[in-house]
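User: Once you have settled down, look closely at the record that follows, taking as long as you need, and be ready to discuss the fold:
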Amino acid sequence: GGPRPRPGQEVSVKVLGTLEDGGLVERDPRLTFVPGHGDVVQALELGVPTMQPGEVSFFLAACRYAYGRPGREPDVPPEAPLLFEVTLLEVRDGPDPQPLPPAARLRLGSQRRERGNFHFARGDFAAALRSYRLALHALDGPATAPPGPEEEEELQEQRVKCLNNCAAAELKLGRAEEALAACEAALRISPDNGRALLRRGQLLAEKGRDAEAALVLKRALELDPASKVIHTELSRLAKRQSPPSS
C-alpha cells in the first residue's frame, strides 16, 4: 500500500538475485538508492518505481538490464539473464545534500565515478554520464570543514578525472560541443592535463579551428614527446594546412 516512488525519491529494498540455475549472485537485506542515479542495475532502476511499499515483485532481467554482455566476474557469466526478488521496504523524499567531511566526499565521488566506468564499459553512455555528473556533484558538495592541502589536491584530481570521463561519454553520445566544454573545464583545474589537452586539440581540429588545435596539441606534445597519437594529429593538421603541390 501507499504511493509508488516519484522521481528524486529515495527507496530501500530487500533484494535477492539469482541465475537461471538458481545460483545466488545478489543478496542485500536493505539496499538504498535513488532511482535514476545509476547506482544499481537497470532492472532495479526501472522496476522498483512501478512498485508500492510492502509489495514483493519478481523481475526477470535480460542481460542488458543486468550485467550486460561481459557479465560480472566471478559469479555472473557473460550475457546472463537474472531473476530478482525485490521487496520495497520504504519510500522517502530524497536526502538534501548534507555537509560531508572531505574524506567522505572523496569516497562518494570515487564510488560514483567507478559506477560510471561500469556503465561506460557496457556501452550505456547516458548512464555513465549521469554517474560522472553525480560524482562531480559529490566532490563539489558542501563540506563540514575546509579540506587540507592534500585533500584539496586529491579533490581536484578526482574532478579532472570525472570531467575527462564526461568528455568521453559526451563524444560517444555524439555531443562534441559538450565534450569540448568538459575538456575546457578540466583544463581550468589542471592546465597541463595531457588527456584533456589531446581531446581538446582533436575536437578543435574537427571544428576547423586548426590554429588553436595546433597550439593545444603542441603543448600536449611537450608534455608527452613520445605520443604517437599526438604526432599523428599534428601531422594531419600540417597536411591540411600545406598548399597542394602543382
The chain has three domains: 9-93, 98-190, 191-239.
